[in-house]
Specification:
Chain lengths: 405, 241
C-alpha cells in the first residue's frame, strides 16, 4: 500500500514528464483506434455497399451457374432447399432471383440491361431495394411492371408511368418480349448497376423468359456479416452437391484483393505510428532514469530490495500507461461514433477509382468494440514493454556508481 | 568485547590491469559499540572507498569485514541489501531524502522496508524527531527544509532502523558552520545518550575536533589512529598505578 502511494507521488514529481508520457499514450490510443476503425469501417462499408447493391453476402446457384451465367443453368425453386438454407446457422434471410439479359427500348433508343426477377418483399429485406427508389413507387409481387436504374432510365429517356419494350432470349431458346410500365426509378451508388439494372417481380420475369418455377440464384443475408465467409464454408459441406454456395469474396475477388492489399498498407502505417509513440515514451523514461539515478542508488544503499524498486517503477508505469490509455479510449469512443455518423468523404481520382469498384466514396468508421479493446491492449502492451527498460536498469544498478557525482 | 566492525587486511584496487590505484591499501580497523569516530585524510585518500566497503556497498579485493561477527564479504548482493537494511544506518553527503515524501514519511520509509507496524513507526518517529529537534517539520517535504535540517532528518532515518552503527560520508560537507555544529551536536548527543556508534568521514577540522577517535588515511593507508594512542596512554596509566 505504501509502495502504491509512493508510486503515485513519484508519478507527479515531474508533472510535465508524466503528462507528456500520458499524452503520448493518449494520442497513440486515439490514432490507432481511429486508424483501425477507419480501416475496418471502410472495408466493411465497401463490402456492405458492394454486396448490398446486388450480390449479397452469399449466393446459392445450380452448380456451374457462376461460370456460365445463362438461363439454362437455372434451377427449380425448391421450398425444401430454401428451408434448409434458412436453418443454417447465421443465415438471416433468403431471396430468389431469376437473372438474365434483355434489350430495353424506348422510342429509338435501345440499351442492354441486366434483368432481375425478384421476390419483391424478400429482396427488399435483403438488399433494401425500396430505399433506393428516387421516383415512383415500389413493385408489388403481382405487378407486370418494372423498376429502372436511374442511369438506364436517363439514357432511355424514360420516366415513371412511361412504357418500355423488352426483348430477349428465354429459357431453352424461347423468344422473350413484352411491354412494361415503369413504376419507379432506383438509384445505385455503383455506376455499373446504375446504368444497367432493371427489376421486375419474379412471376413477371418467369413469364417473360418462359422459365416458369425457375430461379438462377438465392441471395442470402447473415446475422453476423463478419462471419459470412465461415458460414459459407459450413454451408458448402451441408448442401447437396448440385448446388454451389459462393461468398461475396468468391463472386467479387477484386474487392477481396483490394482489401487485403490495403489492409497490409495500413499495417505499415500503424507500425510507424506505434514506433513513433514508442520513441516518445522511451525518451521520457530515459529522462526519468537520469533524474532519479542518484535517488535509486541511495534507496538500494539504505536497504531497499531491488525487486521492490522494480515493482515501484512498474506500478508507476502501469498507472501512467493505463491512465493515458483509458482517457484515450474514453475520448476516442465519441470521436469514432461521430465519424461513423458523419463519415469522411473523398473526391477526385480516388473517388472515381472507388466508384469503379461500385462503392460510394465515403469513409465511415467501424464501431466494433473489438477495435477499442485490441488497440487499447496493443498500446498498453507496448507501453509496458518499454517500461521494462527501467526495470532492467534497476537489475544492473550499482548503488556506489549511481551515487557518484 | 562489543566489537561492531572488524576489518582485516582490506584492500581495494582500481584499474588493476593498467595503472593500479590502491584506493584502500591493507587496512585493519576495529570499532567498538558506542564509538564516535572520524575518518580523515586528504581528498582521494580512500575515505569513501573504505566507508563503502564497511557499509557493504562495495566489496574489497582483499580481506574480510566482520560486522557483529558476520563476514559481509561472503554475502550475496541480495543478502547484502537486507543486511544493510537491518544493520547499518547511512547518512550521505546530500540528497539523502526521497523528494516526494515528507520528513516523517522519509523516516518511516526505512521502517516500512523493515515491515514495522504503524504503531511502532509512529512511536519511533516521535522519539527521533524530538531528538533531532524537528517536531515542527514532520510534514514538510525535503525541498522546504534547509540543508542542515535535511541532514538531521537523514540522521533520524539512519537511526530509525535501529542499526548496529551509522556510517556518514562527509555529512557536513554541504553545510554552513552553524548547521554543521548543530548536526554534530545531535550526533554526539545520540552517541552519549543512546550509545549509538558513529563512523563518519570529514575534511572539516571543526568536525574532527568533536570526534572522540580520529583515524587518518593517506593514500589508502591508516597513518594515524588516536585510539591506539589513547590505548597506549591507558596502558601507561595502568602500568603506573
Ligand atoms: N570507480 C573508480 N575508479 C577508479 N578509481 C577510483 C574509483 N573510485 C575511487 N577511485 C580512486 O580511489 C582513490 C580513493 O577515492 P575515494 O573517493 O575513496 O577518496 P576520498 O578520500 O573519499 O576522497 P574525497 O575526500 O575527495 O571524497 C582516489 O584516488 C580515486 O581517484
Ligand atoms: Mg569521499
Amino acid at each position: 500500500m505504501w509502495l502504491l502511494q509512493l508510486a503515485w507521488k513519484n508519478m507527479w514529481r515531474n508533472r510535465y514528464r508524466t503528462l507528456i508520457t500520458m499524452a503520448a499514450i493518449f494520442f497513440a490510443v486515439i490514432l490507432s483506434v481511429i486508424a483501425s476503425s477507419l480501416k475496418e469501417g471502410i472495408f466493411n462499408n465497401l463490402v456492405k455497399n458492394v454486396v448490398s447493391f446486388y450480390t449479397g453476402y452469399a449466393q446459392v446457384h445450380k452448380r456451374g451457374y457462376w461460370n456460365e451465367q445463362i438461363l439454362d443453368n437455372s434451377f427449380e425453386t425448391a421450398p425444401a432447399a430454401e428451408q434448409k438454407i434458412l436453418q443454417q446457422k447465421n443465415v438471416a434471410g433468403i431471396t430468389p432471383r431469376l437473372e438474365s439479359f434483355a434489350l430495353v427500348s424506348s422510342g429509338d433508343v435501345t440499351k442492354g440491361s441486366l434483368v432481375a426477377g425478384i421476390d419483391v418483399e424478400k429482396e427488399n429485406a435483403i438488399t433494401g431495394l425500396k430505399d433506393k427508389l428516387v421516383q415512383g413507387i415500389y413493385l408489388k409481387s403481382t405487378d407486370t411492371a418494372i423498376l429502372l436504374a436511374q442511369g438506364l432510365a436517363e439514357r432511355l429517356k424514360l420516366k415513371v408511368a412511361d412504357t418500355a419494350v423488352l426483348i430477349g432470349q428465354g429459357y431453352h431458346g424461347a423468344t422473350a418480349a413484352g411491354k412494361y410500365v415503369v413504376k419507379g426509378i432506383v438509384k445505385f451508388g455503383s455506376p455499373e448497376l446504375n446504368d444497367k439494372a432493371l427489376f421486375m417481380p419474379l412471376a413477371a420475369a418467369q413469364d417473360f423468359y418462359s422459365a416458369y418455377g425457375m430461379v438462377t440464384s438465392y441471395v442470402l443475408s447473415f446475422n453476423n456479416t463478419a462471419a459470412a465467409e465461415a458460414s459459407v464454408i459450413a454451408m458448402r459441406s451441408s448442401m447437396d452437391s448440385s448446388y454451389e454456395v459462393m461468398s461475396w469474396g468468391d463472386m467479387i475477388p477484386d474487392i477481396k484483393q483490394h482489401i487485403t492489399a490495403d489492409s497490409n498498407n495500413m499495417k505499415y502505417v500503424q507500425g510507424i505510428l506505434y514506433m513513433l509513440i514508442c520513441f516518445g515514451i522511451f525518451g521520457t523514461l530515459l529522462m526519468m532514469m537520469v533524474e532519479r539515478k542518484f535517488e535509486m542508488g541511495m534507496l538500494v544503499a539504505i536497504g531497499m530490495k531491488k525487486i521492490k524498486l522494480m515493482v515501484l517503477l512498474t506500478v508507476e508505469s502501469i498507472l501512467t500507461v493505463f491512465a493515458g490509455c483509458i482517457i484515450g479510449l474514453l475520448v476516442s469512443i465519441p470521436v469514432i461514433y461521430y465519424l461513423n455518423r458523419h463519415p469522411f468523404g473523398i473526391g477526385g481520382e480516388t473517388a472515381k477509382a472507388y466508384e469503379r469498384f461500385g462503392f460510394e466514396a465515403i469513409f465511415p468508421t467501424s464501431t466494433d468494440a473489438a477495435i477499442f479493446i485490441n488497440q487499447g491492449l496493443a498500446v498498453v502492451a507496448m507501453g509496458l514493454l518499454i517500461s521494462l527498460y527501467p526495470v532492467y536498469k534497476v537489475i544492473r544498478l550499482n548503488p556506489v556508481a549511481a551515487m557518484k557525482k | 568485547m562489543n566489537t561492531v566492525i572488524d576489518a582485516h587486511n582490506i584492500s581495494k584496487v582500481y584499474n588493476p590491469t593498467t595503472i593500479p590505484v590502491y584506493a584502500v591499501n591493507n587496512v585493519h580497523l576495529h570499532l567498538q559499540k558506542g564509538e564516535f569516530t572520524a575518518l580523515v585524510g586528504p581528498s582521494g585518500s580512500g575515505k569513501t572507498t573504505l566507508l563503502n566497503m564497511i557499509g557493504g556497498l562495495d566489496r574489497p579485493d582483499e580481506g574480510n569485514i566482520f560486522i557483529n561477527g558476520i563476514d559481509i564479504t561472503k554475502l550475496s548482493a541480495n543478502e547484502l541489501i537486507s543486511f544493510r537494511l537491518q544493520n547499518i544506518g547511512f547518512v550521505f553527503q546530500s540528497f539523502n531524502l526521497i523528494p516526494v515524501l515528507t520528513a516523517k514519511e522519509n523516516v518511516e520509509f526505512i521502517m516500512q522496508l523493515q515491515k514495522a507496524s504503524k504503531q511502532q513507526r509512529e512511536e519511533r518517529v516521535k522519539t527521533l524527531f524530538a531528538q533531532i529537534g524537528l517536531q515542527d517539520k514532520l510534514n514538510e517535504r525535503p525541498s522546504r527544509l534547509s540543508g542542515g535540517q535535511q541532514q538531521r532528518v537523514a540522521v533520524a532515518r539512519a537511526l530509525a532502523s535501529r542499526p548496529q552503527f551509522v556510517l556518514a560520508d562527509e555529512p557536513t560537507a554541504n553545510l554552513d558552520t552553524k548547521s554543521a555544529f548543530n548536526l554534530l551536536d545531535i550526533m554526539a548527543k545520540l552517541n552519549m545518550e543512546e550509545n549509538i556508534t558513529f563512523l563518519f568521514s570529514t575534511h572539516d577540522q571543526r568536525v574532527i575536533d568533536r570526534a572522540r577517535r580520529v583515524i587518518t588515511l593517506v593514500d589508502g593507508r591508516i597513518v594515524q589512529d588516536t585510539a591506539e594512542v589513547s590505548t597506549q596512554h591507558e596502558e601507561a596509566a595502568a602500568v603506573k598505578t
